[in-house]
Amino acid sequence: MTDEIRTTVKLGKTKEKGLSRRSLLKGAAAVGGAALGSGAITGFPTIWAQNIRNITLRQFGTGVSNQNAVADKVREDLGFSLQMTALDSDAVSQRAVTQPDSYDIADIEYWICKKVFPAGVMQPMDVSRLTYYDQLVPLFIDGKLTPESTIAQGTAPHTVGFVEGPDSVTFASTPTNWMTMIPTIYNADTLGIRPDLVGRPITSWADIMDPAFRGKTSIINVPSIGIMDAAMIAEAMGRVTYVDKGNMTQAEIDATVEVLLEAKRAGQFRAFWTSFDESVNLMASGEVVIQSMWSPAVAAVRSRGIPCTYQPLQEGYRAWGGGLGLAKHLSGLELDAAYEYINWYMSGWVGAYLNRQGYYSACLATAREYMSEDEWGFWMEGQPAQGDILAPDGTVMERAGAVRDGGSFEDRMGAVACWNSVMDEDRYMVRRWNEFIAA
Amino acid sequence: MSRERRSAGFYVLAVFFTLFVIFLYGPISTILILSFQGPEGGLTFPMRGFSFHWFTRLFQQQAVGDFGGSFSRSLFLGLMVMITTVVVSLLAGLAFRRRFKGSALLFYLAIASLIVPSILVGLGVGITFQVLGIRPNWFTSGFGAHLTWTLPFGLLIMFAVFNRFNRSYEEAARDLGASPWQTFRNVVLPLILPSLIGVGLFGFTLSYDEFARSRMTMGSFNTLPLEITGMTTNVTTPVLYALGTVTTVFSLLVIGGALAAILLLRRRSARRA
Amino acid sequence: MTRILSRASAYLQALPLTVILLFFLVLPIGMLLVVSFWDYDFIRMYPDFIWLNYDEVVNSAVTWRVYGNTLKYCLIVWALCLFIGFWVAYFLAFHVRTLTMQMALFLICTVPFLTSNVIRMISWVPLLGRNGLLNQTLQNMGLIDEPLEFLLFSDFAVILAMVHLFTLFMVVPIFNTMMRIDRSLIEAARDGGANGLQILWNVIIPLTKPGIAIGSIFIVTLVMGDFVTTRFMSGGQSASVGSIISNQMGLLQYPSAAANAVILLIIVLVMVGAILRFVNIRKEL
Question: Other C-beta atoms within 10 Å of B235: how many?
Answer without folding.
Answer: 23
